[in-house]
Amino acid sequence: MRQLTAIERLAAAAHGREADRCPCICPGGMMNMVVAEIMERCGVSWPEAHSDARQMAALTYELNRAGGFENYGVPFCMTVEAEALGATVDMGDRQTEPHVTVPAAYSAAELEQLRPFSLAAGRIPVVLEAIRLLKARRTPVPVIANITGPLSVAGTLVEMTQLLMELRKQPQSCHRLLAKVTEALISYGRAMLEAGADAICIAEPSGTGEILGRRLFHDYSLPYLNRLLDALSAPVTIVHICGRLHSVYAELASLHCDVFSCDACVSLEEIKPYLAGRALMGNVNTHALGCMSADKVGQLTRAALQRGADIVAPACGLPLTTPLANIQRMVAATAGGGRS
Asked: According to the CATH classification, is domain 6-334 in 3.20.20.210?
C-alpha cells in the first residue's frame, strides 16, 4: 500500500478504511498540544497567541514541523465560546491557560444575561483566521478545529455546581440554555469548516457519566452532542469525554461521531465493544508524557496500539513542561506500528 498523507491517514482511520499505519494526533482545544519548547523555538508564547491568529497558527505549525503530532489544532483552550456568549475570561499567562472567572448568569433561567452570539465576537475571528492561515500553507496535514461541548459551555456560562442542581430541578430552563448554546456552537463549527478545517473535535469534560450519571448523561449530554454533530456534517468528527465512563457505556453506542476519545483511566479493551462502527482514539497518559522518560512513553504508545487504539493520542491536554522528545517518541512509536 502506498504511503498516505496525514490528512488521508486520519480520514481512513476515522472511517474504518485501510490505512498504511495508525495516525498519532493531539487535537488541541481541551487536549492542548503546545509545550514550552515549541514556544521557545518559534518565539511565540501565551497568552499573546490566544488572541493573535498568526501566533496561534505558528505554534501548532511548529510542533508538527518539529516531528510532533500529525495534525494542526486550534485553539489551545476551552473559553472561546463562553467568552463570546458573555462570560468573563482571564487570559492566563505563559504557564496557565485562559479560564472563566465570572459566569454570564447565575441560573439557566437567565438566558437574557447571555450575550447574543456573533462570529465577530471575542476570539472567534482569531480562531477562524488561524485555520485559514494553516490551510494556506498547503501542507498535507489535517487542521483540527476544536469546539467545547454544549454541556461544558453551559457549565461555564452558569457555575457548574449550580447547573448540576438545576439539571434535576429545572429541566425546562436547562434544555432552553443547552439549545441556545448548541445553536451557537453549530454556527461556530460551520464557520470553522468554511475556513478550511479538515476535522472537528468536540471536548465535553463536564458531560461525562462520572459527573452526570447515566440518566442525566442520556437526557442532557447525548442529545445536544448529537444535535451538534448532525448539523456540522464534518469530514471527520471526534468526541472526547473525560473521566470514568462505566455508567454510560451503553449510551456511547448512540453517539453520532466518527471517532471517540477517552481518558487514561478507561480501558480501551473494555470500551471498544460499545463503539462499533466508530474509531477509538487514545489514550496515552499525559502525566507520563510530561514527567517520564521517552522510553516509557514509547512503551505506553505500544500498549495503546496493542489494546485497540485506531488513532493514538494523549488522554488529555499536555502539561506545558512536556519534553518535545517525548512527543517525538510517541509519534515515532506509532509510525513504527508499536515497534519504535
From this structure: yes
